[in-house]
Amino acid sequence: SIVLESSDGWMVRVPIRDLSLASVVFKDMFELPFLYEHDNSTGRSTVLLAESKPVLEFLLRVSGLHEGRSMKGLILDAKILFDVARAGDKYDMPALPRMLRYVLMGNWSTFAAKPFELFAIVQALGYWDLLQDASKETLKISFSTVNDSAFALTYTSPGALQLLRLLHQLRHRHLLRPN
Fold first, then answer.
1. Residue partners of 64: CB distance under 8 A and separation at least 6
2. pLDDT tens-digit profile of 23-80?
3. Are strands 2-5 and 44-48 parallel, antiparallel or unpaired?
4. Which residues pair with residue 3 across a beta bridge?
5. What is the DSSP string of 2-67?
6. N or C: which end of the chain has fewer CB within 10 A?
7. What CA–CA distance (Å, rounded) separates 117 from 58?
8. Distances (CA, A) of 117 to 134, 154, 160
């Protein structure tokens, strides 16, 4: 096994074989042992990662590499989900988008509590078939509250924000039903 260390010092031991199966980057890394640190005094090999503990723990759990696939105790937050998706791209983890979609759909009501963030994460991750449902969630609140979500403003494309604004204008004029 190997120890993965987050940017904030959290360490977790992960079987090399499992990590290699989940990530092309790690598979390649383990074929070249000089790409990670080995401490002869402890007999421990460590890979230092740029991700924080919440992101790394979420990534490993959703991938089944740490404490099974239990989401219990994890922070279900759009920013963390986005950072996990970005880490999955960086480490070339092809199964991760499907797993993140499962987490998102299984916790829809949690994410829908912040509708503009839900819309932003669905759009940012490219789950186009879920975009309509996410946009309907935003119709339940005033469009002016989008300014309260730095995440939504940062990660939603200008075109998507314009589309939401138009949907809200139609809703306001009673030309569009919320359901």
1. 18, 22
2. 999 888 877 765 556 665 566 688 889 999 999 999 999 988 887 556 777 888 899 9
3. parallel
4. 13, 46
5. EEEE-TTS-EEEE-HHHHHHH-HHHHHHHHSGGGSEEETTTTEEEEE-SS-HHHHHHHHHHTTSSS
6. C
7. 18
8. 9, 10, 12
Residue type (1 letter), 70: S
For residue 46, report the phi and psi dihedrals to the nearest 5 degrees. Answer: -130, 140
- Distance between CA 165 and CA 135 in Å, rounded? 10
Task: Tell which residue, 102, 122, 106, 103, has the closest CA to residue 114.
Answer: 122
Contact status, residue 164 vs residue 146, Cβ threshold 8 Å:
yes
Residue bearing tokens 């809703």: 171
The pTM assigned to this predicted structure is 0.82
DSSP state of 154: H
